[in-house]
Every structure is written in structure tokens, then in C-alpha cells.
Amino acid sequence: MLPFAAARLRFLLIHRRRWPLILLLVSLLFFFSISGYLEEFLSGFLSIFSSTPSHVSSPRVLNVPIPPFLLSPVNACSTPPFLLILVTSAPSHRDRRDAIRQTWGSLASSTDSASLTLFVLAVPKSSEEKAALMHEAVTHRDIIQANFTDSYRNLTLKTITGLTWALEKCRGAQYLLKTDDDVFVNTMFLTQFLRKANGPQYMGRLHWHVSPSREPDNRHYVPQEIYGGNYFPPYCSGTGYILSREAAGHILEQVRSGPWLAVEDVYVGILAQAAGIAPRHVARIAGSMAVPHSTCCYRTMFTSHGLTPKGMQEAWKMLKEAANHWCPSVVLLYCKLFGQLLEKGEDGVH
Ligand SMILES: *[C@@H]1O[C@H](CO)[C@@H](O)[C@H](O)[C@H]1NC(C)=O
Ligand SMILES: *[C@@H]1O[C@H](CO)[C@@H](O)[C@H](O)[C@H]1NC(C)=O
User: What predicted TM-score, i.e. pTM, was given to this entire model?
Assistant: First the structure.
């Protein structure tokens, strides 16, 4: 019995010495997976599977089938921004647009013109709304509008309209961010991050393995004729994705005349795949998540979703008042763990 007991004791001792190491490894794995850095790392391999590297050449002349522009704030781009932010919005969301104008969107006039925020809308149904929107556009000169009916099922058209406008009328913008009117954007940190990026880029909160909804009543219904596959290719959440100018050009090159997939972000993912551009996950983009309402989360994340106009003002105030506030990297873990996953609402779109 004695040799057996001794061996057992030795076994335990050796393993006890390894416990801290095992604990450390488990914690690191936890940190990297919850924070999103593991996904960020893994998404780097998606480019191996992209089929046609068409992005080696420069994009062709655009010929996207979209209705004519009714409002086109070209003067806003006379000093081209580094980052052009396109916010898809709905006519009735004046309060959300105003909140963005007063907060992160106000950096439009910043000295180095790093970012410019413009809203993308279509035509409201009622004549009162038409008149109100026209008045708003004259006052703020930040509305892009094309001649089609503003509705949720036309969101894809709205996005394609915004991207086309950016490439045609704001040629100097190097990056585009497509986002919604209930998303908080940390424009300053995002711009800093993008200054270090290079090559064609399609980045955001990655969705890896989503299958189309075949329920006609579902808001995200996709008929078999429009997309036959069982799974969509990986795509970035429409609450905030970044396209380099070059990538946007190659993506628009793939647009054919409709009918288009009505789920805007999935459609852009499909176009990107056709163009041979692999999406990249960015841990600091929240996707449909609302991060905890705290200074460090707004300082750490590039986006947060589902803010009311009042929440937007508060978040901006927190960010401004904490210019030198230090937040440790593990805050990202806190923001992700305690963030609220929101069902993507009809934001900016009906
Ligand atoms: C916009 O579309 C409507 C109907 O689709 C048409 O009657 C109108 O002339 C168009 N306006 C412009 C400026 O293209
Ligand atoms: C989308 O826009 C087109 C052009 O204005 C319009 O004919 C169509 O009804 C709209 N679709 C929806 C679902 O509103």
C-alpha cells in the first residue's frame, strides 16, 4: 500500500504546482473568448477561404441601379473627411438625429476633419413629413435622400444609396462607417484605430453562422428564390460596420438589379464574399449589444447599440468629462459580460 500512497501523493503535489498555471490558462481563455479577441484572431483566417481576390485591381466605374438623389449635401465633403459615417435613419426619428448632431456627430466640424456624419433617408409617405424633412435638410445640410419610399423593407436600398453617394460624391473619404440612429459611436477612438489599418477592409461585429428566416411573417424573412443557401456567409452586424473606400467600391461592383435581399447587413456580406473580401471581427464593436452605461465602456468600445436620445447625451457627457480617465484592458470583459443583447429593432428604418 505504501508505494501506492506515495505515488498518489507525488501525483497530487506535481499537479498542485500546476494549478496556478492551469488557472492562468483558463482565465486567459475566458478573457480572450468573452472579450471577442479570440474571434478577432480567428476571423483573420477567413481571407484564406475567399475565392476571387478581385480587390487586387481597382474598382470599376459604378453602375448601381438606384433611384436619383433628391438631397445631396456635397458641400459637406468639400474638405474630405478621413472617415465618413453614414447613419440610416427614418423620417420620424428627428429626435435621434438631433441627439447625434449634438453628440458624436458634432465632430463634423472638427479641425482635422477626421470624421463627418451624414444621415441617409428616403421619401416619407405623408406630405407633412416630406416638408419637415426638407426643412431639416436645409437647416443642417447633412441629409442624403434618394427617390424611393422610406420603409423597413427598403433598408438595403437605403444602404446601397448611401454607399454609392459616398463613392461618387465624397471621393476623398478613406473609410466609411455604416450605422443606425440609435448607435453611439466613439468617433475619436475609431478614427485612431483606422489610421493604423491598411488594405481593403470590411470590419465589424462578425456573425459567423446565421441561417435565413423562412417565416414570411418574420421581419428578416428571406424567400428561397432570393437566397437558397442554408447559411449566410460571415457578415458584419448592420449596427456598425466599416468599409475602406476600396472595399466599398468592390462591393458595389457586385450589385446587380433587384430583387435584393431585404436584410441589409447580410446582403453586404454576400456582396463582399462575391468580391473576395473577407470580413474581420473587431472586438470593440458591440454589434446589437448595449454595453453597460459606464464611462469605461464608452471609452473602450467603438460602438454601443440601443441608446435613446437622452442616453446618447449622457454617454457623450461621460466621454467628454473623462478625457484622461484610465480604463484597464479587462474593462472590455466587463462591458461584454454585462452588456445587454438587444434584438435588432426597427431602428433608423421604418
Ligand atoms: C420621384 O419619384 C416619383 C414617383 O416614383 C416621381 O413622380 C417623381 O417625378 C420623382 N422625382 C424626381 C425628382 O426624380
Ligand atoms: C421601396 O421603394 C420603392 C420605390 O419607391 C417602392 O415602390 C416600394 O413600394 C418600396 N418598398 C416598400 C416595401 O416600401
Answer: 0.89
